[in-house]
Design brief:
The chain is mainly alpha-helical and about 325 residues long. Helices cover about 60% and strands about 5% of the residues.
Length: about 325
């Protein structure tokens, strides 16, 4: 999928914004410049810390979903009470792994995760519950079972939107670290957005140049990383990166060619939903529910229309969605 000029122009603007955030992060950590291994540490006194274990997280989420909507509250309570959600930490599970799948015979979703106490536990849980809500609504509102799955470019809207909806309830999960979590999540949302764009550009180059050697492919990928993060020092690991250490970790390139750009499209629609949620909760939830119920029964543009979402290819949509998140990041950066 080719990216239009408005999308690419905004990518450059977001790179500049994220570079500013990297500089601010270095100042908070009392560093002259971030090294590649520093980037995960946002604050000198530690990143946001979960209050309680995976079970407490699962139970606290009940309170959140009661306030979000009666339909999702009933779904989530049933999933918890009847063991259709397993996020208990275990050394036998992959760390950070989470997924949601359909149980077609009973028209019900199942969520799996491994909550080990990191900040990502909340994002993984809410992300997968977003998928679960969409699956449940589609399975029970569409006559054809195939329509329970959404088109790729829309599939991540329900999940990424649910991540943003979590912000209003962050205190349930992080206590005094709620603002830290919101800041880190929003920061990550922007960096992921340009990362998805960069991978799409890399894949376009990759498939247009089939004669390139493995070394050339690895170096091109590394050069893309440098472009995205000019304020981060990769010199200590450059030797390994140009040999493919970073490229070989990008599983999406191998498993789902040209799929990750769908995350960028969905991410901007999720940001638009988040902006609307801050303005009118009731109407926004209705549109979110309509989108989830429609599943894969309509085309991409028709699904956006059902949810009253604007096309993420339009310059005004890109500016509005990303601008809303940038404004929130700037608000938090002065309080965390």
């Amino acid at each position: 999928m080719a990216l239009n000029k408005a999308f690419l122009d905004k990518k450059e603007e977001v790179i500049d914004f994220c570079s500013m955030l990297d500089k601010e992060q270095a100042k908070r950590l009392w560093l002259k410049k971030l090294a590649s291994y520093d980037s995960q540490y946002e604050f000198l006194d530690g990143n946001a810390t979960l209050v309680g274990n995976g079970e407490k997280l699962r139970q606290n989420a009940k309170r959140m979903y009661v306030e979000l909507g009666n339909d999702i509250s009933k779904l989530y309570n049933t999933m918890v009470d009847d063991a259709y959600i397993d996020i208990t930490a275990s050394p036998n599970k992959i760390s950070g792994m989470g997924f949601c799948t359909e149980l077609f015979n009973i028209k019900f979703p199942y969520v799996f995760g491994n909550c080990t106490g990191s900040i990502h536990d909340v994002s993984v849980l809410t992300h997968e519950v977003g998928h679960a809500y969409q699956m449940y609504m589609s399975l029970n509102n569409q006559k054809l079972i195939g329509y329970s799955e959404m088109p790729n470019d829309v599939a991540e809207i329900p999940s990424k939107t649910m991540e943003h909806f979590t912000h209003d309830y962050a205190e349930l999960f992080f206590g005094e670290d709620a603002d830290k979590f919101c800041f880190q999540h929003l920061n990550q949302s922007l960096s992921e957005l340009i990362g998805y764009c960069a991978i799409n550009e890399y894949e376009s180059w990759l498939y247009s140049n089939p004669d390139k050697t493995p070394e050339e492919r690895a170096r091109r990928y590394y050069e893309g990383m440098i472009e995205l993060s000019p304020e981060i020092d990769f010199s200590e690991v450059e030797e390994y990166m140009v040999q493919g250490a970073s490229l070989f970790r990008s599983i999406g390139i191998y498993m789902f060619p040209f799929y990750l750009i769908s995350y960028a499209l969905s991410a901007m629609s999720a940001m638009e939903f988040a902006k609307r949620m801050s303005e009118n909760r009731e109407e926004t939830w209705k549109d979110y529910s309509k989108l989830c119920s429609a599943g894969g029964s309509l085309s991409y543009n028709e699904l956006l229309e059902v949810a009253n979402l604007h096309s993420p290819f339009e310059k005004s949509t890109i500016e509005s969605s990303i601008g809303f998140v940038k404004d929130k990041v700037l608000k938090y950066i002065h309080t965390v």
